[in-house]
Amino acid sequence: MSTYGHLFRVTTFGESHCASVGAIIDGCPPGLTLSPEDIQIQLDRRRPGQSNLTTPRNEKDRVHLQSGLELGVTLGTPIALLVKNEDQRPHDYSETDLYPRPSHADYTYLEKYGVKASSGGGRSSARETIGRVAAGAIAEKYLKTAFGIEVVAFVSSVGKINIPSSVPSSSPSNEDDDDVEDALSEEFRNLLATITREQVDRNPIRCPHAETAERMTQRIIRAKDASDSIGGIVTCVIRNVPSGLGEPCFDKFEATLAHAMLSIPATKAFEIGSGFRGTQVPGSKHNDLFVRREDGRLGTKTNWSGGVQGGITNGEDIYFRIGFKSPATISQAQDTVQYDGTPGFLAARGRHDPCVVPRAVPIVEAMASLVVIDQLLIQNARKTAASLLPPITTLPPTMVMPGAKSSAA
Amino acid sequence: MSTYGHLFRVTTFGESHCASVGAIIDGCPPGLTLSPEDIQIQLDRRRPGQSNLTTPRNEKDRVHLQSGLELGVTLGTPIALLVKNEDQRPHDYSETDLYPRPSHADYTYLEKYGVKASSGGGRSSARETIGRVAAGAIAEKYLKTAFGIEVVAFVSSVGKINIPSSVPSSSPSNEDDDDVEDALSEEFRNLLATITREQVDRNPIRCPHAETAERMTQRIIRAKDASDSIGGIVTCVIRNVPSGLGEPCFDKFEATLAHAMLSIPATKAFEIGSGFRGTQVPGSKHNDLFVRREDGRLGTKTNWSGGVQGGITNGEDIYFRIGFKSPATISQAQDTVQYDGTPGFLAARGRHDPCVVPRAVPIVEAMASLVVIDQLLIQNARKTAASLLPPITTLPPTMVMPGAKSSAA
Amino acid sequence: MSTYGHLFRVTTFGESHCASVGAIIDGCPPGLTLSPEDIQIQLDRRRPGQSNLTTPRNEKDRVHLQSGLELGVTLGTPIALLVKNEDQRPHDYSETDLYPRPSHADYTYLEKYGVKASSGGGRSSARETIGRVAAGAIAEKYLKTAFGIEVVAFVSSVGKINIPSSVPSSSPSNEDDDDVEDALSEEFRNLLATITREQVDRNPIRCPHAETAERMTQRIIRAKDASDSIGGIVTCVIRNVPSGLGEPCFDKFEATLAHAMLSIPATKAFEIGSGFRGTQVPGSKHNDLFVRREDGRLGTKTNWSGGVQGGITNGEDIYFRIGFKSPATISQAQDTVQYDGTPGFLAARGRHDPCVVPRAVPIVEAMASLVVIDQLLIQNARKTAASLLPPITTLPPTMVMPGAKSSAA
Amino acid sequence: MSTYGHLFRVTTFGESHCASVGAIIDGCPPGLTLSPEDIQIQLDRRRPGQSNLTTPRNEKDRVHLQSGLELGVTLGTPIALLVKNEDQRPHDYSETDLYPRPSHADYTYLEKYGVKASSGGGRSSARETIGRVAAGAIAEKYLKTAFGIEVVAFVSSVGKINIPSSVPSSSPSNEDDDDVEDALSEEFRNLLATITREQVDRNPIRCPHAETAERMTQRIIRAKDASDSIGGIVTCVIRNVPSGLGEPCFDKFEATLAHAMLSIPATKAFEIGSGFRGTQVPGSKHNDLFVRREDGRLGTKTNWSGGVQGGITNGEDIYFRIGFKSPATISQAQDTVQYDGTPGFLAARGRHDPCVVPRAVPIVEAMASLVVIDQLLIQNARKTAASLLPPITTLPPTMVMPGAKSSAA
Q: Biological process (GO) annotations (chains A, B, C, D) (predicted)?
């Protein structure tokens, strides 16, 4: 449904041509300093019309906070917000309405609901993501304030063009002789460890590798000029997440992360850590050996796991990739059929994004923040509850964590 | 937590060395004929010791139904079932207990709970999956009986060895000139359309391509002989799923599917339809054009979407891939540290699966069935509710489905 | 939290002095004809300032629909709506702010959140109920359209003044000789079977017994003149609810109903059917014997159960009572302490409702509708699922319902 | 459904004639010392056959723990437990099976599911409550260990026989002149403040007032001798609950409490604090004025609210009453109809409880514990999250709690 989360719970509403889109955020910790600008900055990154690579429909997309705050501080009560659809003239009927757009949601919405919005796929509109981005920005503000958590996403692929360090340098022919280093280069790992949003935003494509960004830009322009579209991959890293997040066995951290990411429109694939490529690497090379950190805590020498082991965060960086398909709405003629089965050619009218990944970056960051804050609140509950019990004295020391009674996450 | 699903809800329990493992299945449709054998058949496929490729620990893993049935018919009330841990001798302490196993859940469970099972990762034990498989078998029985739905998973990769038709034949050098056919060959698509469990089970590796199965077998034996492990990929197809399943916007069908799959131990990656590779293909080639089927309904000419559009099933086959990492527990010595930071070498004792994908096949099928039945029940609710309203007469015909008032899903 | 329901899900927001209050309704059946007036009519009944018995603050409380409809028909997507707080001037500080109001939420909100709205209890404001009433009106429109369900609430008591037929006529002295007829007179049962909203609204007190209404009015005026307040009881009946609603064992129909009713501000008590008084009546007199109805279905001769048996509706009228305490905010001086413990006298400023029950009537109706529609959708799912199975032939006839495979609820 | 709770989550299974009944408890805090005896003690109090007032079916009802513990300490993983149905011979068919028992669940289960257990109402069996009582005992062990929380329930009424101090001494004739003291005497309030389980268990009726207990006993014997049944009221008090529990606005503490209580079989009524009677008392007499406690915290002079204000606990004792109807199964002949509408007389075979309230006492305590622990874990999450933010410096002091950044609940 349109609600995400258990204790930090987001409910969104709105489609293309209605009065407004927005969200209610329930369960935001009280006492957080929050301004509309904390939210607007991410909405602006999501907004169409930021460059000549995205749809020119220029909406201002200003957020209007309705409740849950007073004098700039959250009260713990639901925060409602909305963004007006300034462009909400009634849908003007045309012959293209007779066709379900191929690979779009027109057909499936009609199958599901028996009725659909005149403009097509209803909630599958990209404007649905405004509520997510706004909610994610609030979650992120808390995570940054309370834990110093950093969430940074960027475009790592457009079509067949990749950040060079993000793809395997070679594929050894020997069936057994693989190495995870081939899949995830040291250069790329360094990028993950240090990348900032400022670096990501240096170009409109949101790829931090300048030369690749330029090639991606050209690729998107070629798609646009051909009345076509192209897909891509967004990579995201979350740093400074406490250990212990994730709930066995059905709500493992990566399971909830995958759920959140594949709820973003146009996504088709997700991998965490070494991902698909890592399945080729023997355990002896893939295992993340433990080391003792300077603060006395354990860390891992490598991080092929992507910060999650047994479904629970281990304190290392969490990184993952999401595949976005080529947008379905293209203006070249497609040989398809009408709702009633009559064959014909459909060419979408209007202007559409030839590639969604640059604008997907803040959406990925938002969903990542929503996953972390919800799991964090749940783990707070568990850890605090355990900390209120007397020390365990009847178990062998190997079964009990030294300092198990420490304060909550 | 340990509960999956909204209307068909599964709660599992149990770890390696406790009295039993099992599940409660709540919300099973009443009036379904169900025998222990319907469940046992999938438990047997999950069971270790089926071949020399899996751990020799031979448990009988007989299911014991506790409730929810009478005279072999489901009552609609919770079905409890359990499987005894026959091998539940107390964990005998050893020096290896001083070490958190690298890339295993020992460390993260201790971080989360402050206490852990003597045998290690608790619920991250493979025995946790028994409850899922049993629950999935019940769901599947309903889906097959009521809808003729078929769920078939198989091993498509082990390490670097793939079913030839499952991987791109070539990678054109031209940056723009990609074709989705390269990513998903006609031969492989035919395999997806027709494959049966009988074909899958012809060899213990559960790969339906005999020659590849033999190479996979040798690869696993090499891992075993080297006290090492290797990962792999499971592909799954679900056929005859009705259109309209999946809930915008956070519970899109593929989002709940990814959630379910990445809740299986050792998974790191998920893709549906054309997946990551499809992101390289322009929209004009990737879009699934509509055609009129003989029964008058719409279908799609191709199915790169994998049966889901806009997060809602369209009636075509649903297919997806899941990446399983190399098992973390290996018996060769690893240069790591103890819980207290003391450096040392850990070599796991006992026998362990060198590769999990053959046994993962029924687990993937189970989780797929749980996703489908839960979404199906939810869509039943919606479709039936809509069907009880008078016909819509005030909307333009393009907004209303012909036959919208048809019977429920 | 601020979300109610599973498949028909309402999330509300807003407090006294923020920009707006409202709700998102997710899961409304598609294809329902719905106008703002369908909602406004109940908001107007809830609105303060309808008579000299309620607070004079006259807000227009116009509903603004944001999404989920097109051309007056629901799309199945979330319906957002809001009502502006026209009176939202900043709270002007006064000495009374130093005091937590006795029996109000000021103190507990501060205990829970560590911060509170300047105006006091935040979400405990009566304006919070606007979102519920609006959502309930939408649910009710569906229930009436699809099932002819009728929900009517009214005031049966104010202070010690009761509709005569609603209270036991006498209390026999013999310990064993009680009769349920004493608790629930035939006259009152006839009232429940026939009462309409038009009858209820004939006077501002919303008590359908004219003479009693006049006495209640005088009682409230006396409370108002004394700077005091008084409580009361609302009785509600739901007619034409299908059998089979309610989920064993934790979500019995009456359990979810009690939950919903006691979530309304100022409620302290709930009883269904014969309630507390019924506990005194022996089973032989209290049991509802079955009879055969003209349509061949079973009904019950009496209905002391209030339409629910074993937690599941049986098709008879559902009726229940809710006790509302005297409003906590009164303008006479109270001998209490400040937040820091300093003793003093608090006299609330401004005008406040001396009695909430007349305005509670539409709120009770709204919550009743939300309970019924959510349980109805869930039962739709179950019943439709069962109807798709082949007939049960292996059970004795006494275990199977004749016509079990009938269409959904 | 058969699951209760969000973070401390109980799922139960089982009916009368299946192999076993039991529960899975998910989310129990790790590190809690727990023995089977902690659970058995409450199961024994629930067990039939404790005296000649309850059904003679003597089951041993021994709990068997399956998982979630090691060496007597909880691991944080699901605790499964079961109790065998020793008396599970197949239901032997009789003519009484042709009749739905009046006011029982036979008819409604068949309406809901289209199929029913041969023994009748399936999950409406009293044996369903075993899982609840076991789960509640675990919750209670945590609450007592970590917070010193005490939960004590007792029988306050059987039929028309009440503990004298529990009912209004008189009912003044003047319409305005009521006093809450009449509704809740000082003697009864003292009882609530001090009562222990030992006092409750001094007689089998579980009424702590000896003389009344004797009269209740005679009343039940009379019902039994007349092949009839009688209802009653259970009163419960929860002491030492922290302030801040309960979630606005739909999950107010009393709303979740009412939900839990009315999910117990045979319940029809619930009231908290002064309840229905309190609605007659003017606000000036009903408000709980604040006082400064010796520890510097605020308390209330009276506690007519029953420990909850604005839906959130205030730290005072929580007390409430639950009405249980007369058991529906009686052995005297009832003039009713068969499933097919044929008129006839039904006289239930076998022995049945003539009154359920003595055995309901531990069930009420169990549900109370489940409500408190779940709300406590949720509030832990919120309070800990808030405590990790920097102090609020921008709000007026009246909006911020002194010491808001204190440690978690």
A: amino acid biosynthetic process; aromatic amino acid family biosynthetic process; chorismate biosynthetic process
CB contacts < 8 A (B, C): 109
- How far is Cα C57 from Cα A266, in angstroms, rounded to an integer? 49
Instruction: Take residue B41 and report the two structure tokens written for it.
Output: 């058949």
Contact C382 B27 (CB under 8 A): yes
Catalytic residue among A38, A61, A106, A353: A353
Can you tell me the distance from the alpha carbon of A93 to that of A77, in angstroms, rounded to the nearest whole number?
A: 42
Q: Report, in this order, helix, strand and coil percent for chain C, each rounded to 5.
A: 35, 20, 45
Question: E-strand spans in D171-229?
Answer: none
Question: Across C295-377, where does the E strand assignment appear?
Answer: 298-300, 308-309, 312-313, 318-324, 334-337, 343-346
Q: Kindly state the helix (H) or strand (E) to which residue D336 belongs, with its residue range.
A: strand D334-337
CB A13 within 8 A of CB C131: no
- Please name the residues in contact with D294: beta carbons below 8 A apart, sequence gap of 6 or more: none
Contact C176 D219 (CB under 8 A): yes
Q: Is the ipTM of this complex over 0.85?
A: yes
Please tell me which residue in C6, C44, C104, C251 is annotated as part of the active site.
C104
Q: How many helices (H) and strands (E) does chain B have?
A: 11, 18
| pLDDT tens digit sequence for D84-111 | 998 666 666 687 889 999 999 999 999 9
* Residues facing C235 on adjacent strands: C154, C321
Considering only CB atoms, D272 lies closest to which of C4, C113, C268, namely C268
The identity of residue D127, as a single letter, is: R
In sequence order, what are the beta bridge partners of C10?
C4, C25
Which chain A residues have a beta carbon less than 8 Å from that of C21? 67
- Span A259-273, mean pLDDT? 98
Q: What's the mean pLDDT in A150-161?
A: 97
- The DSSP call for residue A338 is -
DSSP state of A46: H
Q: Is A87 a catalytic residue?
A: no
User: Chain A residues with CB inside 8 Å of C1's CB?
Assistant: 9, 26-27
C-alpha D188/C-alpha D179 separation (Å) is 15
Amino acid at C200: V
CA distance D208 to chain C (A): 20
pLDDT at residue A183 greater than cutoff 80: no
CB–CB contact C33 B394 (8 Å) = yes
Question: Is position A91 annotated as part of the catalytic site?
Answer: no
Judge contact between D175 and C219, C-beta under 8 A: yes
Contact B289 A336 (CB under 8 A): yes
Contacts of D67 (CB under 8 A, 6+ apart): B13, B14, B15, B18, B19, B20, B21, D77, D78, D79, D80
> Which is the catalytic residue, given A17, A209, A286, A352?
A17
CB contact under 8 A, B103 and A273: no
Contact A80 C22 (CB under 8 A): yes
Quick check: B22 and D66 in contact, CB under 8 A? yes
User: Exposed, middle or buried: residue B105 (CB in 10 Å: 0-12, 13-18, 19+)?
Assistant: buried
Instruction: Please write the tens of the pLDDT for every residue from B81-92.
Output: 999 998 666 666
Q: Are strands D79-84 and D63-65 parallel, antiparallel or unpaired?
A: antiparallel
From the CB of residue A35, how many other CB atoms can be counted at a distance below 10 Å? 11
Residue of B149, B388, B395 to mutate, interface with C, max C Cβ within 10 Å: B388
The alpha-carbon radius of gyration of chain C (Å, integer) is 23
List chains touching A (3+ CB pairs under 8 A): B, C, D
Whether residue C251 contacts residue D10, with contact meaning beta carbons closer than 8 Å, is answered with: no
Which residue segments constitute the domains of chain D, with CATH numbers given?
3-399 (3.60.150.10)
Q: Which among B300, B326, B386 is the nearest to A281, CB-wise?
A: B326
| Vertex B87 angle, CA B86 and B91, to 5° | 140
Give residue for tokens 């068969």. Answer: D338
With an 8 Å Cβ cutoff, are D30 and B80 in contact?
no
Question: A-chain residues within 8 Å CB-CB of C11?
Answer: 3, 9, 11, 24, 26, 78
